[in-house]
Amino acid sequence: MAARRPPFHVVLLAGGSGTRFWPLSRKKMPKQFHALTGRESLLLATWRRVRKLTPKARIWVVAPRALARSVRRELPDLQKENLVLEPSPRDTAPAIALACAAVERREPGSIVGIFPTDHVIRDSTEFVRTVRVAATVAAEGSLVCLGIRPDRPATGFGYLHCATRAKRRTPTIVKQFVEKPDLARARRFLRTGRYLWNAGMFVWRADRFLEEIEKTAPRIRRAVDGHLRRNRKAWVTATRLSVDYAVMEHASDVRVVPLDAGWDDVGSWDAVARLREEGVGNDRRHVLVDSEGSVVIGSRRLVALVGVENLAVVDTEDALLIVSRERSEEVRTVVETLKKRRQDDLL
């Protein structure tokens, strides 16, 4: 008789601040709650995608307490008890550990898929197929990453060094997590075929992950356990660490399954402009004359551009951003300046 397949749960990470998407993205409404690349928010699009993997009773969202109302408004079908609230943001390792502990309490032995809510995935069918392969590997005890096959020598992503050349939906061992490289190294990575972009998507058994974080970041595990026992002071003792630094770079038996599903991390206004060129484009209310590569986002009034190229114009009620697409990563410096000026009303 075949063994029963473990239950599969999904955890959506909805706590990103989205500082590179100011002025549209703010503390109370960060980028995942906006329709940056289509007709629905990135969060809702992610929800619809993972609904193909598992029933809604097994979909969880982890987010800071301050975003609880926004999550519930955007995802009315999310079960109340499946919203896991962090008292305050402590980076991805504590958030994921808290969600995995909640899943393990409800259904011990479950497999969990961890997915950010600010990505675009064009081929949801291939996404589902790949996640199911990853779940099969995770059931055997591996911590599994979903890696993206590079199509360019990108310097803005971390990489996964694979033991073998990456093949579609074929699991392989992760030899090393590599920090963002310079251009020369990124070109070499691309040529070898043994490096994948680290997309921050994972699949594992909840108990296996919790065992691993007990070894590699015990303060986080103690903080999570204390928080679940309603110790109000426990959460602030959790070390602020990403899941890569806290667990994945130190864990044993880490594998990767290549994901070829039209992935984009939507990491800057330049990425939004590129995706809009593929899809929704500019609102027809706006007038663009000899302004190739430019995009207008978020405005309720008419915006006209004449003779300017490769600009992103983001117009909101209380702030206007005009940025060269090639320098859109630098928008976060505007946010830093506003913080120094204590202009919290604009954050």
Overview of this protein structure:
The chain contains ten helices and 16 strands. With 347 residues, it is α/β, with parallel strands linked by helices. It has two domains: 8-264, Spore Coat Polysaccharide Biosynthesis Protein SpsA, Chain A; 269-346, no CATH class. A five-stranded mixed beta barrel has the order 6-9-7-8-10. It has a three-stranded mixed sheet with strand order 13-15-16, with helices on one face. Helix 6 packs across helix 7 (218-228). It is globular. The model has no long low-confidence stretch (mean pLDDT 92).
List the helices and strands and how they pair.
Layout: E1 8-13, H1 42-50, E2 59-64, H2 68-74, E3 83-86, H3 92-106, E4 111-116, E5 120-121, H4 124-138, E6 143-148, E7 159-162, E8 172-178, H5 183-192, E9 195-205, H6 206-216, H7 218-228, H8 243-248, E10 254-259, E11 263-264, H9 269-278, E12 287-289, E13 295-297, E14 304-306, E15 311-315, E16 320-324, H10 331-340
Parallel strand pairs: 1-2, 1-4, 2-3, 6-10, 12-14, 13-15
Antiparallel strand pairs: 4-9, 5-11, 6-9, 7-8, 7-9, 8-10, 15-16
Helix pairs in contact: 3-6, 3-7, 6-7
